[in-house]
Write a structure and sequence with these properties.
The complex is a heterodimer of chains A (199) and B (447).
Chain A (H helix, E strand, L loop, with lengths): L1 H20 L6 E16 L2 E19 L4 E15 L8 E14 L6 E16 L8 E19 L4 E18 L4 E18 L1
Antiparallel strand pairs in A: 1-2, 1-8, 2-3, 3-4, 4-5, 5-6, 6-7, 7-8
Chain B lengths: L1 H8 L17 H22 L9 H10 L8 H20 L5 H18 L7 H25 L7 H8 L4 H9 L18 E14 L4 E14 L14 E8 L2 E12 L7 E13 L4 E16 L4 E18 L10 E17 L2 E14 L6 E15 L4 E16 L5 E18 L14
Antiparallel strand pairs in B: 1-2, 1-12, 2-3, 3-4, 4-5, 5-6, 6-7, 7-8, 8-9, 9-10, 10-11, 11-12
Helix pairs in contact in B: 2-4, 2-5, 4-5, 4-6, 4-8, 5-6, 6-7
The chains are: A mainly beta (199), B alpha+beta (447).
Chain lengths: 199, 447
């Protein structure tokens, strides 16, 4: 009798604990956050890379498709104010953003998720001439991909802290700057972010 | 002749004897098969065909991981058709191992990503990743269902059907063999009999004019229109439970392959349906080349008329995830076509009776912004009508007229404007398998 009671209590506690660990997923959802990013810029026909660290931020809104799948629209941005396309050059401000339809897939009952999306991307490079004068802006718009994985850590019934290791790929075409020309530019932005999710 | 056509089309009555048990889900086997597929293709190319690009190893893997994506210079047919077919093999490795459409999607992406980074000495190609993954999903699901329709364990032509389905779905064939399912004692797959099936075969001559080269030519052509399921008859249950496929054979072998499948739709019967489709386009003829992967959102309606005639309309907005279009005066390296995303609209009206279309009109406008190749924006327009004059119960005379217009706005050279009128005169054979009456009649779809 007592063993049965203990077993019942144990099962109840474990069930409550498992339920508590499982983030709430229903209806609409919104997520925003930011973190550390790293951009790697490559062009076709050349193995020369331009890379730099920067900061990244994002906003995602979406709906629940099923218990395991969320669909959303994500706007992610990256900025680095000291980008250079050759050694010693820090004259460019690089900004990229992706607007994508994303799918988040929770394969298990935990908060782990995998993420993928496709959409449009834009890269903007602003160069201030050394002798003064109006800044020169070069911009490319094209196709964007993103993918990654993360974890929702539930802090209340509807709120979770979300950590993500993700990558955005932006194929933005030719970008012509005063110092150089990059043909068929592809910028890959890797970021580690912390965000807050409300569902 | 009729037997052969029936075999190809698989417009058979459902011979499924008992309710079909679902295949056990084996995701690990699906991933393993996609890895084995990559290794097999790589080693075949390296050892049997002595292809230098297949001699990849740790050095190129490290370089690829460090440097990352580029746009490649492969031929149009390789990038826009063969890569999607390859992607379909990954996808169908998953479908043949019991995974659903959505569960098979990551397998297609995984197979494509691993091939791009580890299967070639070249850097991973972003256009290949798009075409192999998204194109593989579309073609893979179409071929998975088409293969299941052609195969029939209850048929006395079972072996011939297996042979006919093999090129479309070799991974399905392999897994059926591994599971010993190629026998009359095993029921057919659930995709074998979707309810509504339509096939229209056209054979005749095609005349096309290239306004830029000021020349025209006439060539023989064969067109295959295949319809699987019907969105008005069957409420949405799964992606691609209703799709249309058009293949055009001509002077370049496969001149066109276009497929549109329902990704999402209402789960109840309506006269006006809001649908989300995935579209695969590949056109490679002597006049122009165009292809890509698209998602479209729109409304399909059927309008009942007195007697048994009906009109169907379709109006869609589309997003081209990545398209390819020839750029005769520009291009990139050895490649003379551009890649880019875009979008557009399309409209179609069809007038028919008893499941047969007698008149169809279609118009489409698209925009592609090149991100690899020329610094250009491409504006495209299609207009087409197709008339079929009945000569008998299944036979007719078809007259198709299509005009393709393109205007390329270059940032560093004059604009390029071209026009390609095309006329086709065809003998047409149509067969339709349709469930019980009281439901809307299908119409064979135009371009």
């Amino acid at each position: 009798m007592r063993a049965g009671l203990v077993l019942t209590l144990l099962v109840g506690v474990l069930a409550t604990s498992a339920e508590a660990q499982r983030p709430h997923r229903a209806g609409l959802w919104i997520e925003t956050g930011g973190g550390f990013g790293y951009v790697r810029i490559a062009s076709s026909g050349s193995t020369t890379l331009t890379s730099a660290p920067g900061s990244t931020s994002y906003l995602t809104v979406g709906v629940l498709l099923s218990d395991k799948v969320l669909l959303g629209i994500e706007n992610a941005g990256f900025v680095d104010e000291m980008l250079g396309f050759f050694r010693g050059d820090t004259s460019s401000v690089a900004q990229t953003w992706n607007l994508s339809v994303v799918v988040l897939w929770y394969p298990w009952r935990s908060g782990f998720f995998a993420k993928g999306g496709v959409g449009v991307a834009q890269g903007t490079f602003t160069v201030s001439p050394t002798g003064g004068g109006a800044p020169i802006i070069a911009r490319g718009t094209g196709v964007g991909l993103n993918f990654g994985a993360g974890y929702d850590l539930k802090i209340s019934r509807k709120i979770a802290l979300t950590a993500c290791v993700c990558a955005d790929v932006a194929g933005i075409g030719d970008v012509v700057l005063p110092s150089t020309r990059v043909d068929d530019m592809i910028a890959s932005i890797y970021h580690i972010t912390i965000g807050i999710t409300i569902r | 002749m009729r037997h052969i056509l029936a075999l190809i089309a698989a417009l058979q009555s459902d011979s499924t004897p008992v309710p079909v048990p679902s295949i056990p889900r084996r995701p690990l086997m699906a991933v393993t098969q996609s890895v084995i597929l990559n290794v097999t293709v790589n080693r075949l190319d390296a050892w049997a065909f002595s292809q230098g690009w297949a001699n990849s190893g740790t050095r190129t893997w490290g370089r690829n991981l460090r440097v990352g994506w580029e746009w490649d210079e492969d031929q149009f047919g390789t990038n826009l058709l063969m890569h999607p077919y390859h992607g379909g093999l990954y996808f169908n490795a998953a479908r043949a191992n019991g995974l659903s459409f959505w569960e098979a999607v990551p397998v297609a992406f995984l197979g494509s990503w691993t091939w791009e980074y580890f299967g070639e000495t070249d850097r991973p190609s972003l256009n290949d990743f798009f075409m192999t993954s998204f194109g593989g999903i579309a073609l893979g699901e179409v071929f998975h269902r088409l293969g299941a329709t052609i195969r029939d364990n209850g048929s006395r032509h079972r072996v011939l059907r297996e042979i006919a389905a093999f090129p479309l779905d070799p991974m399905g064939w392999l897994n059926r063999r591994l599971r010993h399912e190629r026998t009359s004692e095993v029921p057919n797959a659930p995709e074998h009999a979707p309810g509504a099936l339509s096939l229209r075969l056209h054979a005749g001559a095609r005349f096309v004019v290239n306004s830029h080269l000021r020349k025209s030519n006439g060539t023989p052509t064969v067109i295959v229109d295949f319809g699987y399921g019907d969105p008005f008859l069957q409420p949405y249950r799964a992606p691609f439970d209703a799709f249309r496929l058009r293949a055009i054979l001509g002077d370049r072998g496969l001149n066109a392959l276009r497929a549109t499948g329902r990704l999402y739709g209402p789960r109840t019967h309506h006269d006006h349906l809001f649908l989300v489709n995935q579209r695969f386009d590949y056109i490679n003829n002597s006049a122009y080349r165009l292809g890509g992967q698209s998602i479209e959102v729109g409304l399909e309606s059927h309008w009942r008329l007195p007697t048994e005639w009906q009109i169907r309309t379709e109006a869609y907005l589309d997003a081209i995830l990545l398209g390819g279009i020839d750029a005769p005066t520009a291009g990139f390296g050895k490649r003379n076509y551009d890649f880019g995303p875009g979008g557009g609209v399309r409209f179609r009206l069809a007038f028919g009776r008893h499941g047969r279309s007698y008149f169809a009109f279609a118009a489409q406008s698209e925009y592609i912004h090149a991100v690899s190749g020329a610094s250009a924006d491409h504006f495209l327009g299609f207009g087409a009508f197709e008339i079929t004059l009945p000569l008998g119960p299944s036979v007719g005379l078809g007259v198709h007229h299509t005009t393709f217009l393109r205007r390329t706005v270059n940032s560093d050279r004059p604009d390029d404007i071209r026009r390609f009128p095309e006329l086709r005169i065809l003998l047409t054979w149509t067969d339709v398998t349709w469930p019980a009456s009281g439901v809307p009649q299908p119409t064979t779809r135009a371009p």
